[in-house]
Amino acid sequence: MGISGEIAQRIALSRREFLHAATGAGAGAALFGLAPVRAAASSLGRKAVVVTFGGGARDEETFMPEGQENIPNLLKQLIPQSTIFTQVVNRGILGHYVATASLATGVYETFNNFAAVAPENPTIFEYFRRDLNRPATDAWVVAPSNGFNRIGESGHRAYGPGFGAGVILPKRLLGTALSAAGEAQYEHLLRDNYETPLYTPEIAGNEIELHHMAELLKLSVEAFTAHARNLASPDELSVYIARQLMRQLAPSLLWITLHDIDIAHSGTYSLYIDGIQRTDRLCAELWNTIQNEPEYAGKTTLFILPDFGRDSDTDPGGNGFQHHRTGDSLSRTTWMIVMGSGVRENVVVDRAVESTDLVPTVGSLLGFSPRLAQGRPLPEVL
Amino acid sequence: MLPSQLKADQFSAYPPQARQIAANRIALFEGLPLAFLPLLLRELIAYDWKFPAERRELDHQLAYLGSLSAQQLADAMAPFGALHLSAELERLDWVAAPAQFSEQLTAHLWATHQIDAFRSAAIDYVHKVNASVSMPALPVSRLVMVVIGAGVDQNRYALFRKLRPQGVYFSNVDPKNGWSLLADTLAARAAAHPVPFGHWYIDGAANRPTSGGLTCISYDAMQGVRTALVNKMRAVMQPGGGGPEVLRTLLAQMRPEDLGLDGTGDKGVLTRFQVSILTEGSGTQLFSTTFVQWSAREALRRAQPVTLLARFAPRQREQSMKELLAGVQQRAVPDPEGSLIDADMGAYYTWINQQRLSGADQSSFLVWFENHNEALAISPALAHGKTESTAIDMRELMRRLAV
Questions:
Q1: Helix/strand/coil (H, E, C) string of A77-111?
Q2: According to the model, what pLDDT value does residue A99 have?
């Protein structure tokens, strides 16, 4: 068994111990790699890329022995270069928009998951831009779902308008491009949420317009549309846009939300597995882009985490992989990979952390202060 | 309004049997907390359309609550009573519309971080109810047969990997007359043990010819209903149509008549079940594999049949980006290979759901790769985690299953 296999086994084992503890039995948690390697490092010029995916993937389909075939890139390429947190607990609402907003604010947001509303608490983008006096072009969100159009900027009075990130919704842009070209019938492409099919909320917020995007990314509408036709899924389109952003604008803070895995809500196991395998590949492609782009190489920290998990097979309140409705330990527990310059490689952190710890951790890395966030910086990667 | 303010005439819109039960239990209902009673009423309001097994369970539950002393009832309800509910929830008409209250309560519990406390209270309560009930003996040990893989010629996917530890994997099955044998087994059990809603046949395509005494549903037979439902959903989800909240209410209120089905009499029990499959099951409207898995789950959970034959058929392929850009598929293109993987997982979930029912330790389970040589059998008469590669025909396989 290679290093990647050992780590996968360790993650699965420690997750089982943790879940056992969460349901009443005792179990210890180990902590590796506490010593900071660059506590005094300067944050000047540093960049962060955060990849979340809505539609958590369970251990059975990823880190358990039978699931490892689905994540070869994570196991063999990324994890050996990363510090991985094996127990990231989400104690908030397990809906994708509200949970992703909670990741972005560091506070468990409580708004209606299916409403196109701004987070109540300041987002990571607002802290970043206000504290570091960064321009609008330095913080971006790429998200596939139309419901995510308000995630770039909160409704908080001390932050909010003028401090948020630009939001690109590639599927929406594509719909606009097709509409402009007179091509009808793109309703299915705009399917926002696999859990609530056909949902297409009204758009308002910092969402970028089609021709503005074309201008910023130096990408013609025709080229964008033509490229989209050759991609396999909406997430591939998101990664394509993210890479264009990195090449043209090189933002210091880039947030990408993937969503293909959430096809699981349709109950089709094979398509859920396809989504995991695609996400695994896209994460590796993003890491390779970071390594190959001069603006990013050597000064970027990459965070990869699902927003939460999915229900266990045995909880009678759920239907296994299909949903995340029970609130059981498996649906609340996921993992996070942190890698890049200065981050210890091949380190496994077994202690339980919370998904709200992400924003304070990025804040410590980049040098801003998320003063209203509930989480705590993770010393293992600082 | 709080439960302590209940009056019998508030149940006037309930169907006859449900109304009668409510009238008999008003005193009990008055003592239940708001975080609990509407959820009980959500079951009661549908009493007249429930399967016999469901009615029996609800009767048991009401009898259990009624048997508790005042202090025991207070203790049992304390975890629910400790939950903090909003004034908005109190103002809802939870007697007439308990399902809508349930949706709102769920959202409130998640938003106020009380869902874990509710979940814990619910699990504890269900354990106590189950412990208080002695289940009647089954007329015959339960048998579930699952058929997967229609349309697949060659397969490289390792089947039954989750089920293999539970039984015997047969790798050299003669598939000749396999379907006929399973259908005959179902028919024979239905004839020998004529239990209402006790013997089911669910098909992911069209139901194949069967004998009487069976409850049959199929994906193909519901095509018109599915289309009507999706059209209604689409109308609500368009801008200005109301959005997800309205959609939930619409689905919760959907009756068989709204979709062109007969909702009266004995037929109404089954047609309401069929509507629930499409309105409560995510993906059942679009993918036949999901339809079969969810139908089997709900049939086992609700009707608790002693025999179930579930056959998966190829679902339509997920649209590629090119197809998404072009609009809907002009013609549904089947995906047999992907459907086999879906069905393999669906078989595992069907076995899990079978294990949740009474008599699980005596029940038998078979999953067969249709017209191929692979099958897996689980029964008290068979070993666990074993592989048999010697040649065996379907008749002998069923005999080994001891059914």
A1: HHHHHEEEEEEEECCCCCCHHHHHHHHHHCCCCCC
A2: 94
